[in-house]
Fold this sequence. Notes:
Layout: E1 3-8, H1 15-25, E2 32-37, H2 42-53, E3 56-62, E4 67-72
Parallel strand pairs: 1-2
Antiparallel strand pairs: 2-4, 3-4
Amino acid sequence: MSEHQLDARRLLCPMPVIRTQNKIKELSAGDTLVVTCTDPGTLSDIPTWCRINGHTVTDTRETDLEIIFTITVGDED
């Protein structure tokens, strides 16, 4: 299990979700992906995509300018 980073800042919907999806395809179950975004739409889009695809958002943090998701990669059965 390892931690990976994805910079999705300055990208608008649907690109943060697409980049997250593409990066998760490269990872193994149990890995962690930290995604940094600036699009407020990701607050609903990324957790919804994760729930549908069997991944878990373990933390969401917001600063004045960024939204940071920590995602645990699930099994891709």
